[in-house]
Design brief:
The complex is a heterodimer of chains A (114) and B (109).
Chain A: E1 3-7, E2 10-13, E3 19-26, E4 33-38, E5 44-52, E6 55-58, E7 65-70, E8 73-78, E9 87-97, E10 100-105, E11 109-113
Parallel strand pairs in A: 2-11
Antiparallel strand pairs in A: 1-3, 3-8, 4-5, 4-9, 5-6, 7-8, 9-10, 9-11
Chain B: E1 4-6, E2 11-14, E3 19-25, E4 32-38, E5 44-49, E6 55-57, E7 60-65, E8 70-75, E9 84-93, E10 96-99, E11 103-108
Parallel strand pairs in B: 2-11
Antiparallel strand pairs in B: 1-3, 3-8, 4-5, 4-9, 6-7, 7-8, 9-10, 9-11
């Protein structure tokens, strides 16, 4: 069965520092992968998605970037964090729910920028 | 106007109660519909798909009304463990899930 891992689980970083969050998927090949952010009290916002190695689509302009160096690895990065980057970062992969496709989430990384 | 709207709650109900959540969506081109459950400080987890014909999974029943662009979730015989935030999700294409902000349910003894 498919599993999705994210690390670190929590992170506290100063403003202006760099960021690298990692997501890996097991049990599937060539998955579509997604990065979301959930700010406190707000809904999930899609940041990036990737349909394959080196292919990244950005949904919103921002201080973040994403990369897909390997088939089952998706990385979220920033060169200089802002206070507004604080939030709960979720990686997801696309899979089947019965006859329909939807997305399944990893455990998330909680980021606090101070 | 948000593309997916939910009553944020909280809904505070006693154990054993029946509770219903509603969700409306604005884009008639939406293709698929789901309910997810999110526990405090955890990731969202798929609860069930939603079909026009309605579908049931144990104590949970989901219904879709395409004409009214309305989705519902009914929970019967509420348990303490049902306490969570319930997210309505609408998909136009499978790379773009649109989430509601969620409805919080608190079941008390």
């Amino acid at each position: 069965s498919q599993t999705i891992h994210q690390w670190p689980a929590t992170l506290v970083q100063p403003v202006g520092s760099p960021l690298s969050l990692e997501c890996t998927v097991e049990g599937t090949s060539n998955p579509n992968l997604y990065w979301y952010r959930q700010a406190a009290g707000r809904g999930l916002q899609l940041l990036f998605y990737s349909v394959g190695i080196g292919q990244i689509s950005s949904e919103v302009p921002q201080n973040l970037s994403a990369s897909r160096p390997q088939d089952r690895q998706f990385i979220l990065s920033s060169k200089k964090l802002l206070l507004s980057d604080s939030g709960f970062y979720l990686c997801a992969w696309r899979g089947l729910a019965g006859k329909k496709e939807t997305q399944y989430f990893g455990p998330g990384t909680r980021l606090l920028v101070l | 106007r948000k593309e997916v709207e939910q009553d944020p709650g909280p809904f505070n109900v006693p154990e054993g109660a029946t509770v219903a959540f509603n969700c409306t969506y604005s884009n008639s081109a939406s293709q698929s519909f789901f309910w997810y459950r999110q526990d405090c400080r955890k990731e969202p987890k798929l609860l069930m798909s939603v079909y026009s014909s309605g579908n049931e999974d144990g104590r949970f029943t989901a219904q879709l009304n395409r004409a009214s662009q309305y989705i519902s979730l009914l929970i019967r015989d509420s348990k303490l463990s049902d306490s969570a935030t319930y997210l309505c999700v609408v998909i136009r294409n499978t790379d773009k899930l649109i989430f509601g902000t969620g409805t919080r349910l608190q079941v008390f003894p």
